[in-house]
Write a structure and sequence with these properties.
Blueprint: H1 2-38, H2 54-62, E1 66-70, H3 74-79, E2 86-87, H4 90-93, E3 105-108
Parallel strand pairs: 1-2, 1-3
Length: 109
């Protein structure tokens, strides 16, 4: 009988262990996410880049938190553009990266 009593505690111990590990994992994941938002670093693919809505972009530009970077061809940019935006065509972007301030948030279109 003593053996059965010890076995009865095993599921409870396992449940508590899984619960503690799950909560710890969630806290760690949130801390990692917060650190990546604070210091984004480099993105591996374009899918990793956060997307913003038009309203969020408008608020960022209006509040001076961001600058719109239009990567279309110059002719398209001249035809219609967002007020205050700058144009660096995508084909020229890599060669002209030194023109951009690394501390500025650029919203690309």
């Amino acid at each position: 009988m003593r053996r059965k009593k010890n076995n009865a505690l095993l599921p409870l111990i396992l449940f508590v262990a899984v619960l503690v590990l799950s909560i710890g994992g969630l806290v760690l994941a949130q801390n990692i996410r917060d650190a990546q938002i604070a210091r984004p670093g480099q993105y591996r693919t374009q899918d990793d880049i956060p997307r913003v809505t038009a309203d969020e972009a408008y608020q960022a530009v209006t509040n001076g938190e961001g600058v719109i970077l239009d990567v279309r061809a110059e002719a398209q940019f001249e035809a219609i553009r967002a007020e205050g935006s700058i144009n660096i065509p995508l084909a020229e972007l890599e060669a002209r990266l030194d023109e951009l301030n690394p501390d500025t948030w650029y919203l690309t279109i």
